[in-house]
Design brief:
Strand order of the largest sheet: 1-4-5
Helix content: 55-70%
Shape: rod-shaped
Radius of gyration: 48 Å
Order of helices and strands: HHHEEEEEE
Number of domains: 3
Mean pLDDT: 90
Number of helices: 3
């Protein structure tokens, strides 16, 4: 009987060990389930954040595209209407010239009217930054003048302007039309 008791005792011990192992495994499994649930929750949160970032990025891209289109339209309008103020200022002189031609009865009245209009137009252009390029008594400057002819003149120094054939102009210090000149060359 002692062997039966021993066998029974060993069997009971084996059962106890198994039960302890099962309890430990169940605890491990439970902790792994909790860990897995936490990881799933973290993954879902990260997925939501990623989707928010993607959505934000897409909205930002669309806003930028709209901004570019609006900016291009503004720039096109600026270029299209850049001369508007100048045209408005010149229109007054244009209308004055039309009235002078219609209402003047003799050459003297016409000349006076045209001179007034010329001065008004010159003032308007000067206010816009237009200046004549001086040539009289000046040395030839290829950045401001265009030499159409060269003549020999003992009274004038070499490379100085002899005569101006057409006026030149600068607009806010930028040459927009070169003076056409005759230069002394010895």
């Amino acid at each position: 009987m002692a062997t039966k008791e021993k066998k029974s005792k060993v069997k009971d011990e084996k059962v106890e060990v198994r039960e302890e192992l099962i309890k430990e495994l169940e605890k491990d499994l439970e902790s792994k389930d909790e860990e897995l649930a936490k990881l799933k929750e973290d993954f879902e949160k990260q997925t939501e954040k990623t989707e928010e970032y993607i959505s934000f990025s897409q909205r930002l891209q669309a806003d930028f595209e709209n901004f570019k289109k609006q900016n291009e339209k503004k720039n096109a309008d600026i270029i299209k209407f850049a001369n508007e103020n100048l045209i408005i200022n010149i229109l007054d002189s244009y209308e004055d010239l039309e009235r002078a031609l219609e209402k003047s009865t003799n050459e003297e009245e016409l000349r006076e009217g045209v001179e007034l209009i010329y001065n008004k137009l010159k003032d308007t252009l000067t206010k816009e930054g237009l200046e004549e390029i001086p040539t009289e008594g000046k040395k030839f400057d290829p950045f401001k003048h265009e030499a159409l002819m060269a003549v020999k003149d003992d009274d004038i120094e070499n490379r100085y302007i002899v005569d101006e054939l057409m006026k030149g102009y600068t607009l806010k210090e930028k040459v927009i039309k070169y003076s056409k000149v005759i230069v002394c060359k010895k």
